[in-house]
Amino acid sequence: MCRLMGVSRSAYYDYVRCADNCSTDPCHIEILGAVREIAKSSHHSYGSRRIGKALNARGYPVGRRKARSLMREADVQVRHRKKYKVTTNSNHKQPIFENRLNRQFDVAAPNQIYVGDITCIWTREGWLYLAVVIDLFSRKVVGWSMSSRMKAKLVCDALRMAVWQRQPQPGLIVHSDRGSQYASKQYRQLLKIHGFIGSMSRRGNCWDNSVAESFFGSLKREQIHWQHYPTRHKAQQDVLQYISMFYNSQRLHSYLGYKNPNQYEMEMEIVKNVA
């Protein structure tokens, strides 16, 4: 049988010995349960690196290679990303802002630089448009708005929510692409009222707003592409749950040292107070 399968006898007996030991080891059974639980709570979006970090946080000292083998044994797989529709329309004659962000995505304090963007979600009732505002310091989604129409009010409402939640001071930089909603009179007036500084990506350059693009990629890969929404209301509920219950409060971000945004902000505030 070993010759037929192309494996050595020693490898076969090592596998059998490990299988016999692991199948009755309570600790091993427990860690496999933890792997399945982490995979489920992350919407099957975590690879071996994040699974390993999540297990470490629970007190299981495993590396990435061990996490990978545990995922195989637990029959845990990662969902893959699909392409999504581009919503930016920069073919307008509205004034645009200078690119003040200039890809400086590392920010030392909260409420210094926000980034915003729009995406669309398909439902059986038609498109649902989502606008978000993200604080670059912690990658936390601090404002959002959803509507069946992609008008200036959509992005204004998302920024108003961020202002209501965070109370940022004048001088805050708010970066976006060159979409007509962000170049609208309503949006520019909103920035002026609060003393915020507008910033826009270069034409056709998605990397200038890559943090917002990355969030939408995570949202669609981890949640939306695996759903079939009968109504816009159902999609709204799902997106709200993803942002508030998972992305901001549970999802491990490699940029944050494998912490979630809420945890990162709390820890950084404690360090600041101690200092």
Automatic annotation (TrEMBL):
<dbReference type="InterPro" id="IPR048020">
    <property type="entry name" value="Transpos_IS3"/>
</dbReference>
<dbReference type="InterPro" id="IPR012337">
    <property type="entry name" value="RNaseH-like_sf"/>
</dbReference>
<dbReference type="InterPro" id="IPR036397">
    <property type="entry name" value="RNaseH_sf"/>
</dbReference>
<dbReference type="InterPro" id="IPR001584">
    <property type="entry name" value="Integrase_cat-core"/>
</dbReference>
<protein>
    <submittedName>
        <fullName>Integrase, catalytic region</fullName>
    </submittedName>
</protein>
<dbReference type="InterPro" id="IPR050900">
    <property type="entry name" value="Transposase_IS3/IS150/IS904"/>
</dbReference>
<dbReference type="Pfam" id="PF13333">
    <property type="entry name" value="rve_2"/>
</dbReference>
<dbReference type="GO" id="GO:0015074">
    <property type="term" value="P:DNA integration"/>
</dbReference>
<dbReference type="InterPro" id="IPR025948">
    <property type="entry name" value="HTH-like_dom"/>
</dbReference>
<feature type="domain" description="Integrase catalytic">
    <location>
        <begin position="106"/>
        <end position="269"/>
    </location>
</feature>
<dbReference type="GO" id="GO:0003676">
    <property type="term" value="F:nucleic acid binding"/>
</dbReference>
<dbReference type="Pfam" id="PF13276">
    <property type="entry name" value="HTH_21"/>
</dbReference>
<dbReference type="Pfam" id="PF00665">
    <property type="entry name" value="rve"/>
</dbReference>
